[in-house]
Amino acid sequence: MAMSDCMSDQVFANSLKSSHKTxxxxxxxxxxxxxxxxxxxxxxxxxSKTPGIIPAAPITKTLWTCSVECMxxxxxxxxxxxxxxxxxxxxxxxxxxxxxxxxxxNLQQLMIAxxxxxxxxxxxxxxxxxxxxxxxxxxxxVMCEPSEAQSDQxxxxxxxxxxxxxxxxxxxxxxxxxxxxxxxxxxxxxxxNKLQVDQDGLIPIDHIELVLLHITAxxxxxxxxxxxxxxxSSILASEVLISQSGKFLYNKLVSxxxxxxxxxxxxxxxxxxxxxxxxxxxxxxxxxxxxxASVHEEIFKTVSxxxxxxxxxxxxxxxxxxxxxxxxxxxxxxxxxxxxxxxxITPVDVNSRPSSCLTNxxxxxxxxxxxxxxxTGAKVISHMLTSHGGEIFIHTxxxxxxxxxxPPSISEGSGGRVTDYRIPDFGEFMKSNRLAPGTAxxxxxxxxxxxxxxxxxxxxxxxxxxxVIGETIMFNMVATLEPFLNLITQATLSDDEVLECKKVIxxxxxxxxxxxxxxxxxxxSRGKGPKREEQYxxxxxxxEMLVRAHVLTSPFHEKVLECLLExxxxxDDAKGSPKKPLEKSATKDEKMEVSEQEDSWxxxxxxKRMTEREKQDFLKGDKxxxxxxxxxxxxxxSFIRSGGQNLLxxxxxxxxxIHNKRHIEFAGREDTSGPVAELYIHLNDxxxxxxxxxxxxxxxxxxxxxxxxxxxx
Length: 713
Fold this sequence. Notes:
Distance between the termini: 115 Å
Number of helices: 25
Shape: elongated
Low-confidence stretches: 1-13, 571-588, 622-643, 692-713
Structural class: alpha+beta
Strand content: 15-25%
CATH class of the largest domain: Alpha Beta
Radius of gyration: 46 Å
CATH architecture of the largest domain: 3-Layer(aba) Sandwich
CATH topology of the largest domain: Rossmann fold
C-alpha cells in the first residue's frame, strides 16, 4: 500500500512539472475530413410549424473542425488563468505552428497559422507528411528545445528539468496501433537523449506524459477501450482516452485541463439579469467559472459538510463544482477586504449571455461578494469577484477568526502612545504604488521580473520616509518643496529636472533670508518650540539626508547635492566641528581646570583692588572655612581660594596653560609621575667600547675608567 502511494505521489508530481510545456499533435489524416454527425442549431425563418415551409437541412462540422475548436478552448482556459510560464505548442505532421517564445503564446496567431494550413481533404497527396507517427516524432524533437525559463536556468548554472506533456488527437485502428505509437515515442526520447543534444543548444528529456485521445463521430462505436495512466518507463507515462466528437470532445478536454493544471470550478448562482426579450422582468442565472483549486482550500478547512455546496457541473462537465450565491454589491466598491489569496478566473462558456454580462459588470469596476449557500444561520461571505488591470480575479476571504479582525491601536505602539503618525501620507503612498498584474509584454520589454522591479521601486522611495509628523519638517511642507521631493527619488534625472530641484533649494534660501515661518510640529509640547534658526537648521539637515540617500543613483543627483551644500550655511557645520586639533583633543577635566584657573585670576585681580581692611575681613571669612590653626602670612602670598590653590600654583598653572596652547611640552620637562626622557642616552656606551687589555689593566689598578675620562676632561 505504501509503495502504491509513493508511485501515485510521483505521478502527480511529474504531472505538475509537465504543465510548463504542453504539445498538441493534430492528426491530419483524410479520416478527419468526415462529418462529426452532430448537427448545428441555428434559427430558421420561423420556429412554428407553419404549413408550406420546408425546414432547412441540418449542418454538421467535420471531425477536424471540432478537434481544432476544442483544442483552442483548452488553450484559452490555460492562457486566461496562466498568462505566462504555461506554454503550449501545436504540431501536425512535420510542421510546428509556433515556438516556445512567450510572444507566440496567443490564440490569434495560432488561428492564423491553422487557417494557412487548411483542413484535411480526402485527396491529400502526401499523407505521410501529416501522419500521426511523424507528428509524435516531431513533438519529441520540439520538446528538446529549451523554453525561455529553462534557458535562464542554464545561464545561471541551475539544474534544468525538462518535463512535458503531449496530447495527441487522433483515431486508432486497434490496440496494437496504440502500442506501436507508444514504442515510437519511447524510441524517439531514448535516441534524442543519447545524442548529447545539449551541445546543439538543446536539452535532454527527463519525463513525458503522453495522452492519446481516440476521437470518433457522434454515435459511432469505438473499437478499443480506455486505459488509465501508467508508467511505461522512467521517462514515459501513457494514457488512452476515448471521446465522441462535438460537445463530448469539448467536455473531455475541459475536464483534462482541470486535471492537468489542478483547476477548480465555482458556479455563481442567483445572478439577477434582465430578460433579453422583456427588459421589465428579470431572472436569476448561473455562471460556472474555472480557477486554481487553491481557491477552495479555505472553505474545506473550516466547513466539513454543507448541503448544496458541492454539486455536479451545470455545464455538463464530468466534474464537480462549488456553488456560491450572488450578493448584491455595495455602492462603494473600493473597500479593502481581508483576503488570503487572489487568482485569475475564466468562464467555462465564454460566449454565453450570462457569462458576457458578468464579465462586463466586473470589468466596469464593480465588486461582487459571494456567500456560501445556507438555509439557516448568519450569512457567510467567503469570496469576492473583482477586476485588477483589466483581468478578473476571485479573492478568498477567510471565514474563520483572523488575526486581522481586531488590529491593535496605532496610537499605542512599541514606543508608547504615539498619535501623530503620517496616516494620510501613507494612504496616498499606497495608492500611488499599487501593483498591477504582470503580462508577457512587461516581461519582454524590461529587464528583470516585475516583482523585482516593484521591490526596487519601493526601496528607492522609502530610503527616507519618517513615520511620525513630529520627526520631520520637510514632509510637512510638501507643497512648498514640490517637485523636489518627487524628482529626487527617481532613478534618473534630466537637466531640466536638476534645474527644477535647484529652484526649490534657492526658494528655501529665500525663505530663510526673509525669516519666514516653517510648519514645525508642536504636538504634545508646551511653548512655541525651538527658535526659527534651529528650525531652518533641521530643514537643511533633512534635505541633505534625502539627497545623500540618492546621490549614488546618477551623476545628476550629485549636482543637486553640490548645489545644496553650496546654499547651506557654513555655520551649521562649523559649530559642530572645531578647527583647532588641540582643543578637539582636550578632555573634560582639562577644560574644567582651565576655567578654574581663569576664575582664580579674576578673584586675584579683584583682591588687589581691595584695601587692607577689606583684605583682612575677606581672609577672616576664608579662615572660618579652614579648621586648621592660623599661621602668619602675607595677604598676597597666603591667599587661598576654596579650590585650594595659592599664588605660586596659580602662576605655575597659568604659565603651563600658555605653553600648552603654543606647543606640546617636551617629555623631559613633565612631572615625575609621567615618562622621563634620558638626556645622555649613550653615557654608558664608553665602557663597552674600551679594548679588552685596557679594561683588564683598569680592573687591576682599581681605577674607574669614567673617573679617568673625567680627569682628562
